[in-house]
C-alpha cells in the first residue's frame, strides 16, 4: 500500500517538477555540477594533473558543499544520455528530480520511523502531511540545496537515532550524517540534538555517537575535494562565510525589516506556511510528544525541532528568503502532525481512520490548489487568509525568483526585437538561463544596471532606450530605490489574489529612481531575543530531563 502511495507521489513529481520557474542559485548549481564532474573526467584523462586541477574545477560555488550538486548531476547526466543535450530545460527538470528523489526518500524514511515508534496511523498521517506542506513540496522540486538539506536532515536524524539505540550500524548512520553536512551547513542542529539525547536518554550510546561523528566527518571530507588543498583554512571558511550575510540580507516579517529573525518568526512560519489543518494536527502532535517525553523517540523529535527553531529564531544567524534556512523544521513538523492525527484517530473510532484522513486532505487542498503548485513558495495558509492576508500582515510574499517565468512570457509577447531586459542583483543567471533554454526570446538582452548591481555579468552604466526592468517584489532585499520604483505604475504585473508576485517596468521608470540612495533601516532583535530563543530550548531540555528522571 505504501509503495503505491510513493508511486503516486512520484507521478505527481514527474508531472509538476517543471511547473516552477527558474529560481535563485539554480543556474549556478547546475553549472557547478558540470564543473565538478568535469574534474573527474579530467583526472582520468590527465592523472598527473588531478591535484592541481582541483582549484580550477571545484572553485565555483565552493561556499556550499557538493553532495546535492553531485547527486543531481547524476540525474541530469541520465537525462542527457536518454535525450541528448539540446533541450536545457529538460535537463534542468532531470536535475530537479534529484531533489524530488531525496524528498521521496525522506517520506519513506519518516513513514518507517513513525510506524515503528508511534504506530501505523501516525505513520500514514506523517506521509500525507509531507506533500501537504507547500513550502516543503515546492523546494523538493527545485535544483538547489534547501529541499535536499531538509530531506537529508530528516534521514540523518533517523539514522543517528537508530544507531544510538543500537539497531543500525554506525557506518551507515555516520555516512548519512556526512552526506547531510555535505548538503548544507543548516543541518548542524542535529549534532547538538544527538549530544543532548545521549545525555538525557542513553548515556551508554555516547561511544556509538562518537563513531557516527567520526564516520560523518570522514565522508564529508572525502566527498569534497575543494577542502583537500587547504583543509583547515577552507573548512573554517565554510563554517563562517555566512556570518557576513547578517549585515546585508534581512528578514521581512510583520511589515518590518529585521537584521536577524525574532524568536517568534520560525514558530509563526510553522502555522502560516501550512494548511490550517496541518498546523492544528502539528500542535496536537507536539502536545502528545510532550506528554510522552519520557519516550526516547518523542524526545528525539522534540529536541531536533526545538534546536532548529531556536537557532533560526536566535537573531544570530542570517535567516533570509522565507523559511529556507530552517526548512528542516517542516519534515519534523510533519512528524508532529502525523502523531497528532494518530492521537485523534484513537479518539474518533466511530468516525473512521479513512474518513479522518480524507477530511484532512480535502480541507488542506483548496488553498494549495488556489495558490497553484507552480507557486508553492508563495503559499500561505488559511490561518492568515492565504496570500492576500499574508501581505496585509506584513509577510514576505515571494523571494526565490520562481515567478520570473510570468514576466518572461509577457516580454516574449510584447518586447521589441533586441530590447534590453534589466534584472535585480543576483538574478542575471536566472534571466540568462531562460534565454539559453529557449524560454526567453534569443534576441532579448538580459543585463544589470551599474548603479544597482555590477558583477561579472553583462551590465550597462546607463539605462537604454526602450528597455525593461523585471522587478521581483521580494521585500527582504528592498532598497529605497526599489521602494520608489514600487510606487510607480508597472507595464505588467502577475498577481495572485491582488498580490503582485512579479512586475515589469519601463526602463524610463527605473531611470527616474536611480538617484534614490540607501536602504530601509533594519530592526535589531537584540541580545534579549537570543536569550528568549535559547531559554525556550533550555526549558524544553529541562522538561525532558525531568521526564526521563521520572521514568527511571
From TrEMBL:
<feature type="transmembrane region" description="Helical">
    <location>
        <begin position="351"/>
        <end position="370"/>
    </location>
</feature>
<feature type="transmembrane region" description="Helical">
    <location>
        <begin position="528"/>
        <end position="547"/>
    </location>
</feature>
<feature type="transmembrane region" description="Helical">
    <location>
        <begin position="121"/>
        <end position="140"/>
    </location>
</feature>
<feature type="transmembrane region" description="Helical">
    <location>
        <begin position="297"/>
        <end position="320"/>
    </location>
</feature>
<keyword id="KW-0812">Transmembrane</keyword>
<feature type="transmembrane region" description="Helical">
    <location>
        <begin position="326"/>
        <end position="344"/>
    </location>
</feature>
<dbReference type="InterPro" id="IPR038731">
    <property type="entry name" value="RgtA/B/C-like"/>
</dbReference>
<feature type="transmembrane region" description="Helical">
    <location>
        <begin position="97"/>
        <end position="115"/>
    </location>
</feature>
<protein>
    <recommendedName>
        <fullName>Glycosyltransferase RgtA/B/C/D-like domain-containing protein</fullName>
    </recommendedName>
</protein>
<feature type="transmembrane region" description="Helical">
    <location>
        <begin position="207"/>
        <end position="227"/>
    </location>
</feature>
<feature type="domain" description="Glycosyltransferase RgtA/B/C/D-like">
    <location>
        <begin position="75"/>
        <end position="227"/>
    </location>
</feature>
<feature type="transmembrane region" description="Helical">
    <location>
        <begin position="67"/>
        <end position="85"/>
    </location>
</feature>
<keyword id="KW-0472">Membrane</keyword>
<feature type="transmembrane region" description="Helical">
    <location>
        <begin position="176"/>
        <end position="200"/>
    </location>
</feature>
<feature type="transmembrane region" description="Helical">
    <location>
        <begin position="147"/>
        <end position="164"/>
    </location>
</feature>
<feature type="transmembrane region" description="Helical">
    <location>
        <begin position="263"/>
        <end position="290"/>
    </location>
</feature>
<keyword id="KW-1133">Transmembrane helix</keyword>
<dbReference type="Pfam" id="PF13231">
    <property type="entry name" value="PMT_2"/>
</dbReference>
